[in-house]
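BUG-366 | component: ligand-complex export | severity: low

The export step for adenosine-5'-triphosphate jobs runs without errors, but we want the raw record kept on the ticket for reference. Input record follows.
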Amino acid sequence: MTDYAIEARDVAVTYADGTEAVRGIDLLVERGEFVGFLGPNGAGKTTTIKTLVTLLRPTDGSIVVNGFDAIEEPRQVRSTVGYMAQETSIDPELTARENLRFACDAYGVPRAQRDDRIDELLELVELTDVANKVADDFSGGMKKRLDAATALVHRPPLVFLDEPTTGLDPAARNRLWEYFRRINDEGTTVFLTTQYLEEADQLCERLSVIQDGSVVAEGTPGELKRRVGGEILSVELADPDESERAVAVARDESLFADGATIETTESGLAVTARDARTRGTELLVALRDAGIDVIGFDVRAPTLDDVFLAVTGEGNEDGPSTERESDTTDVARSGTIGNGGRDSREPTVSDESEKGNDTDRDEVNG
Ligand SMILES: Nc1ncnc2c1ncn2[C@@H]1O[C@H](COP(=O)(O)OP(=O)(O)OP(=O)(O)O)[C@@H](O)[C@H]1O
């Protein structure tokens, strides 16, 4: 048996309108790994996931998931993956238990195993106490936990989580993290996309960053941070209008090692350099000598936000600023996890269609 949960090579997906959403990416995910797939809006994350779970047919390339060919054996792929889509798949009019029963039907879980499986999952996502309440009364976090549980009724060895915590407050997000860690500890391979870089940092062993349909960086969170090239010294000036002059001072004095990046910021300047910490005081002295007042400074290790900015050239404004929804609110009927007007039951990976029957795949070229 192959050691890989996902072996995707040179995968390209072009939509019918000509949009090249994915342009020749390779992804190798070992069984049991927890990997993250990051990228700005529209980078191609969801398209990639939909292709891996066989909802979309690649225009080019090869995909093997859990040892099954995604084009030749989509039914087998679907029976061995769980997919928690960005759009919720739960029916608000059904109870938590009924939603899970529906998912068991859809995934063909043998009748004799259903009750035990449902009890087990309700316990895992801590919804046993509200098992018989309708999902419409659940908070955003509870709905997401139920959503995650429905993706696991058939005990898939590989689960895809597409921005699973978007819109949740930190407490609700933490609770879901715990749950994702637990399923991974139990051996499930997890493929996560997120716009919260802290989430990727906390959970993922390995990350791929995608931009404009191509993978632009790969590595462990630590490797990616080291690639930023040192630490970051931020200097706050009394008069931010002096930023340009402060940058010129920092550059003129050649204070920092080759490869340093010295840029203006809203409040002053920032230096990314291997020796940012050790040469920082010299910069402060040089600024004082130039008559530039400094009111604060800070040296820190790079975060994934810095990595994201360095490799994609884009800030991650969508992440932390996303509308939030409290896990503790009793009724938080969500507008943040919309299904885009589509029937939330369709398409799902539980569809039993075989190769050649593409009615459940989104429209793509090729
Ligand atoms: N059905 C479709 N037809 C045509 N183009 C599409 C379709 N779905 C997505 N796209 C385009 O493909 C590109 C990749 O979209 P995709 O949804 O995969 O990105 P993403 O990284 O998941 O973004 P987000 O974080 O916003 O969900 C975008 O340019 C998007 O507009």
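Assignee comment: Attached the raw record above. The pocket of adenosine-5'-triphosphate is lined by residues 15, 17, 19, 21, 39, 41-47, 362 (CB under 6 Å).
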